[in-house]
Amino acid sequence: MSTVSPQQTSLHAEHAKLGASFTDFGGWDMPLKYGSELAEHRAVREAAGLFDLSHMGEVRVRGPQAAAFLNTALVGNLAAVKVGKAKYSLICNADGGIIDDLISYRRAEDEYLVVPNAGNAATVAAALAERAAGFDVEVADESSETSLVAVQGPAAAGILLGLVPEDQRALVEGMPYYAADEATVAGIPVLLARTGYTGEDGFELYVPNAQAPALWAALLEAGQPHGLIPAGLACRDSLRLEAGMPLYGNELSLESNPFEAGLGPVVSFKKEEYFVGRTALAAAKEAGTGTAAGRRLVGLKGLGRRAGRGGYPVLKDGAVVGEVTSGQPSPTLGYPVALAYVDVEHTQQGTALDVDLRGKAEPFEVVDLPFYKRQK
């Protein structure tokens, strides 16, 4: 048993004052929920939720060869990203296994901010530093000095409009999805990004640790008239599942590759640079499946009331053909949903499958992802 205490974000005291229940996530003591996780989920879908995401990593890549370097380190074409925009990508090992999924923001021609997941932040930072050998770049892990706060939900833009200077209102209103720019929110300089992990409109705000409590308090106060409430990891998980978004450690791992995870379009074989894992991933693409077993990640809609959970077997005519990676009742849709790796011959939309719920077969069917898609 580990005796290492989980780390605390710069907002831990704020969560405690709000009565949060905490959980260890990726080595961090994070708010699981503040009251009702169902209420927090609904607030994000109908108004707004305020999240502390300061456990996420931030790795700065600077230098004349920053774009070429990231094109060898990551599977996507980062050189094609315009300044001010962002790209979802993956970092893989030589065998094509997924080390992490991440977002990279291009801040200048020669500068990127790479954001890995909490539990993988140190691993990704180390991998990038190792892969930078021979390139004219500097790789700096800024995770320990950076906080990240997210406002997610249909009211997110309206809340921020009340906190930015008049001359930045157009920036907030006109910022496209997967874009980022410098802004001043409640008098505090931030990197404002229109990104998120909930399936709703929303913004993520990067700020130095020292300014995070003041920013959190200002957003909480400004958001209350709009219906904003603080939201924890429990509803973040149910929101991302409804939106069909993978979670590292559940849907993504070193044992999975982008093609079986449904992330094949993220991989760029057209870029000039030879990236780590290219040979293995080219073979996986040619094979048309991810592994010899021929599995693929699919969405499953429950036809009954009971939900499948991670690790539960997926059955076809009583035979095991897959395994659930994430599953729970959908608060928004009113029926159980799940993500699962299933043998490729059973992945067509409408295929009837069962999930073994502790000895009882519960009916599900394969459906297109995402389960939930917001109204524009």
Automatic annotation (TrEMBL):
Primary enzyme class: transferase
Organism of origin: Arthrobacter ginkgonis
SUPFAM superfamilies: Aminomethyltransferase beta-barrel domain (SSF101790), Folate-binding domain (SSF103025)
Reaction(s) catalysed by this chain's protein: N(6)-[(R)-S(8)-aminomethyldihydrolipoyl]-L-lysyl-[protein] + (6S)-5,6,7,8-tetrahydrofolate = N(6)-[(R)-dihydrolipoyl]-L-lysyl-[protein] + (6R)-5,10-methylene-5,6,7,8-tetrahydrofolate + NH4(+)
Protein name: Aminomethyltransferase
Residue ranges that the Swiss-Prot or TrEMBL entry lists as coiled coil: none
Subunit: The glycine cleavage system is composed of four proteins: P, T, L and H.
Reported function: The glycine cleavage system catalyzes the degradation of glycine.
InterPro entries in UniProt: GcvT (IPR006223), GcvT/YgfZ/DmdA (IPR028896), GcvT/YgfZ_C (IPR029043), GcvT_bac (IPR022903), GcvT_C (IPR013977), GCVT_N (IPR006222), TrmE/GcvT-like (IPR027266)
Family: Belongs to the GcvT family.
Domain GCVT N-terminal: start-end pairs: 11-271
Catalytic activity, EC: 2.1.2.10
Superkingdom per UniProt: Bacteria
One matching Pfam family: GCV_T
Domain Aminomethyltransferase C-terminal, first and last residues per copy: 295-373
Entries under NCBIfam families matching the protein: gcvT, PRK00389.1
Keywords assigned: Aminotransferase, Transferase
